[in-house]
Design goal:
Length: 174
């Protein structure tokens, strides 16, 4: 008599395991309709080519040197008042850019970061052996951080691209 309940438990456990394994391979895809899925146009038809100007924050292709200033202005990382430091460029896949900014005075700064490429770009900002910013930024919208320097500090900016990408950062004194 005991073998029947045990067999039922074994069979139900096996059924649950098989169902879980079958469902583990399922992928859920959600499109809320506010922007086209990758490779589709807004109408769901064939892919649509988008010009590099005006700047589309969801455009993923890096721009060349000729379009760099236009991209910086559109991403709002161009020249401005009280810019303490600004840098930008184009990195190849796996390339790293490191720059040291001479001592900055005490104060509060806004660090704005932006990139344009198919994969996230890593930004690191450090000073006095302390990392203030360490982020893998998904290209598209710009990111801003507030940095407070309590003493005169030299900052090291490090940018790394996993694939070809444009990058830009700007440090504004408040």
């Amino acid at each position: 008599m005991r073998s029947r309940p045990r067999a039922a438990v074994v069979l139900s456990t096996a059924a649950f395991l098989l169902a879980g394994a079958a469902l583990a391979g399922c992928e859920y895809s959600y499109n809320d309709g506010w922007r086209p899925a990758l490779g589709e146009g807004a109408s769901g038809g064939p892919p649509v080519m988008v010009s590099s100007t005006p700047y589309d924050p969801w455009q993923r292709d890096p721009v060349g040197e000729a379009d760099m200033e236009a991209w910086l202005q559109e991403s709002q990382l161009g020249d401005g008042l009280q810019v303490a430091h600004r840098a930008y460029g184009l990195l190849r896949a796996g390339e790293v850019s490191t720059e040291i900014r001479a001592a900055l005075p005490v104060g509060t700064y806004i660090l704005a970061l932006a990139c344009r490429g198919p994969e996230p770009v890593t930004f690191q900002v450090s000073g006095d052996s302390v990392t203030m910013v360490d982020v893998d930024l998904r290209c598209g919208p710009r990111l801003q951080n507030v940095i407070r320097l309590s003493k005169e500090t030299a900052l090291t900016f490090r940018v790394e691209a996993k694939s070809e990408a444009n990058y830009a950062y700007r440090l504004l004194l408040l």
